[in-house]
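SEQUENCE-TO-STRUCTURE ENTRY
===========================
Question of interest: how does this chain fold, as expressed in backbone structure tokens?
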Amino acid sequence: RTSWRVRRLEEGLPPNDLVPKLRASLTQWQELLEPVVHLRNPQLRERHWTAVADMLGRPVDRSPGANTTISTLLSMQVLDSKERLAVISNEATQEAALEALLGQVADRWRIVELFVTTFKDLKGVYILGDADNVLQVLEDSKVTMSMIQASRYVGGIKAEVDRLDKQLKTFSDTLQAWLAVQKGWLSLESIFAAPDIQRQLPGEAAAFAQVDRTFKDIMRRAHDRPNALQCGTTPGWYESLRKCIQTLEEVQKGLEDYLETKRVAFARFYFLSNEELLDILRQHKIPQAVQPYLAKCFDGIRLLEFGRATAEGPAQGNDILAMLSAEGERVAFGRTVKARGLVESWLTSVEANMRLTLKALAKKAFKDYSAARRPGWVLSQPAQVAVLASNIHWCQAIERALTGGSVIVTHELEQLQTHCVLQLEELTNLVRGALNDLQRKSVVALITTDVHNRDVVAALVRQQATSVNDFAWQMQLRFQYDADTDGIVVRQVNAR
């Protein structure tokens, strides 16, 4: 407003000496106003006033009741330093903004707490709950700190920034180590809580016990004082947690080596995860503990039948009498298997007994095939044994037919084709009768095989095969009984 009035005077009055003096005084005042505004910046801190004093050659008296006037400032020649004053004032403003951001980060961490929860309702045993909220606050704080550190005005508050940044980095490292220890502890706690595992792995059990004590002590202290930043920067915790991680890695390696010895002893354990295998080993005195995992070890077996009273007398509870498929088919073992001692040892015996039992059943089915009516025969055999024995007899019939001359071979194959059709009719009538679900599945499996065999015979007739060496026959899967090895051989062309 004063400037506007001076301009009106300049325009409205004739030339005189007073108005130019008024203009000069106003200009001088305007030039002085800018440094005054800078010196009155409320964001100026003691470090800034020190810089001002160094620049002007003496300090500005800011004490209460000080008689600092415009004349005082003029005598200090502030007009000559107004550009530098502007720089100092701007730095103070920018630093104040950074201090506000830094304060927001610090204030936020004063209220952030770890979520500590009870483990399995055990008194005095705690674990970290969901840490996503803490991790999100940490990530946000890192972004803010990076922005503050990247500012050109951070110099004045660098010490405070570095201190908080160091705390956050320590907290981040500690929390990551903490979560890693907890993950390892949770995976091993139930394992080494089992007395049997402790006896089998005494060294690893002792090492885990040390980790267990350290982890539980840290968790109890965190439960009593859950402030995240205070916990995460507690002296010595990071080093203790890093040592726990190293120990857990050694324990895990020892455990892996132990499980590998079990898998080498019984290779089907490779089909099980570490947790599943450990669940079996933890309960090695309870043979029935293998039942939930048998389907993974043996593709066609769902359960083993453990001891119960028989006609020969009472069986022991750990005696294994039979194997059962998922469909409910029961195959009794030729001799009872004792489920005692190391689990891998008696499972190896079970596997060997399976082979012996199926071999004996296959030989009996092969022998009885010709002596019994086929519909009755198939219902008295395990389904796979019936399919196998039937295929062996079918292959023998094919090769008998192919050993004569060309005219005889064609006639024999045509007769065999007719015989295959009759067999299919018999099984079709059987499957339409009163069968239970298991019997029906067994008959349907044999019908499927017989349909394929009928089509193979028809193809041999159509292609006029005359010898067992014809490729039309050699290309088929051929099931044969080998008397020299007392076993079954499956051939295709030259492969066996």
User: Anything to note?
Assistant: The two ends are 111 Å apart (CA to CA). The chain has a mean pLDDT of 84.
